[in-house]
Amino acid sequence: MTCMKKWRYLGKSWLSLLLIMFAAPWLESPAFSAQSTITEAESYACMGYDKSRKQTEEEALTNAKRKAVEYVSTYIKSETRVKDFQLEKDLIEAYANAAVKIIQELERSWYRDPSSGDCFKVKIKAEVIPDEKAMARLAKEKEVTDDPSAPLNVQVWTDKKEYKQAEKIRVYLKGNKPFYARVLHRGVKGELLQLLPNPFRKDNYFNGGVIYEIPSGSDKFVLEVIPPFGEEDIIVYASCSPLGDIGLQSEGGVYRVTTEGKYVGEKTRGIQIKEKGTDKEAAASEFFESKVSIKTK
Predict the structure, then answer these.
(1) Cβ(80)–Cβ(86) under 8 Å?
(2) Quick one: angle between helices 53-79 and 85-96, nearest 10?
(3) Which of 293, 295, 294, 275 is nearest to 284 (CA)?
(4) What is the pLDDT of residue 143?
(5) Do domains 8-34+150-296 and 36-136 have the same CATH topology?
(6) Strand runs (DSSP E) across the chain, as ranges?
(7) Residue 262: CB partners within 8 Å, gap ≥ 6?
(8) Fewer CB in 10 Å around end: N or C, the chain?
(9) Model pTM above 0.90
(10) HSE-up of 249 (CA within 13 Å, CB side)?
């Protein structure tokens, strides 16, 4: 076993080549997880005699959001094959009562329609977020979290809840279906490092039903605890489509995230929505965000 010299980044010890043998994981419930679906939708509205330009733009945007929810509800219904009828019904209802968050306005323009006058068109990339309480109930059902025909669900956990100085943290991932993922570590002071993909392990595609360990394989880092101590997070962004890019700078065996923390999730959601095995645009892609918190002392 070959080792590299340890080094620190903002008070954290990160890197040395250590191929850790697999240990049976102690499953811990993540502190946070959120399931959603990202899609694109477009709509238009015309001014007529009783609407201002602002009201027309708002109407077009509202219509686009509604279309996003309607499409995703249909998509989830067609893609979901959960065996338990009640679970399937609850899942569909959770998306029927979904909220919409605009990730990006892809197009917005005014045009002149010969019969309707001045009209406004908008196209958005939107995240459709199912009812959180309903999804929290469904998350307790093993059939939903492990079933590959259910919406994407990625579990993340560590081998312990608390770590002492010099101990090494092991992270585990498991998805119910194939997925792309970005795995980040947020330190006590809020600094972000990207653990996967990294300079030596660039592949971020994972098979469903398989437990993955981090670090392992070609990784050239370990997560070793040193001061300052406190609460740290392992954050996973996953999707059935390739993820959006964020700013990164190589720091030995990992990447330092240069994108401001509050924008990382938003930029990651700028996914490339493609049909499986083709370059054609697809209408929707499942997305999952999960976080597990640990304490160091």
Answers:
(1) no
(2) 170
(3) 275
(4) 61
(5) no
(6) 8-9, 12-13, 32-46, 99-113, 117-129, 154-158, 162-163, 168-169, 171-175, 179-186, 192-196, 205-206, 212-214, 223-224, 230-239, 248-251, 254-257, 284-296
(7) none
(8) N
(9) no
(10) 7
- Please spell the DSSP secondary structure of 90-104, one letter per residue: HHHHHHHT-EEEEEE
**pLDDT tens per residue across span 117-161:** 999 999 999 999 998 877 777 766 666 678 888 889 999 999 999
Quick one: CA dihedral 101, 30, 283, 79, positive or negative? Answer: negative
Closest by CA to 124, choosing from 50, 40, 239, is: 40
Query: Any idea what the Cα angle at residue 271 is, between residues 88 and 123, rounded to 5°?
Result: 90
Q: How many residues does the chain have?
A: 297
Structure tokens at 64: 């686009």
Q: Can you name the CATH fold of 8-34+150-296?
A: Immunoglobulin-like (2.60.40)
Structure tokens at 250: 């190589």
Compute CA 255 distance to the chain's CA centroid, rounded to the nearest angstrom: 18
- Annotated domain spans of the chain: 8-34+150-296, 36-136
Per CATH, the architecture of 36-136 is what? 2-Layer Sandwich (3.30)
